[in-house]
Design goal:
It holds the Pfam family DUF2196. The protein is an all-beta fold. The protein has one domain (about 5-65). It is about 0% helix and about 35% strand. It is built from no helices and 4 strands. It has strands spanning about 20-25, 35-40, 55, 60-65. The chain has a 4-stranded antiparallel β-barrel. Strand 3 (about 55) and strand 4 form a beta hairpin. The mean pLDDT is about 95.
């Protein structure tokens, strides 16, 4: 499976150092994405319907929408 086929809803596809685009809580109504590199994975479950929650190296927190 290539990164373009990976799903941001599955924890097994997310790891520290991965470049992703997240939607932050305050940006959910507009869908504005923030790009960055994963520092921590915050969602404990293996699957989440709205995306795995992560913290980026910049400290921003949101749910993974795209994996690069």
């Amino acid at each position: 499976m290539t990164p373009t086929e990976w799903d941001g809803r599955m924890r097994e596809h997310i790891y520290e150092g991965l470049r992703v685009a997240i939607v932050q809580k305050q940006d959910q109504p507009t869908g504005t994405l923030t790009e960055g590199v994963v520092r921590d994975i915050l969602t404990p479950s293996s699957v989440h319907p709205r995306g795995i929650k992560v913290r980026l190296e910049t400290g921003e927190v949101g749910r993974v929408q795209k994996i690069y």
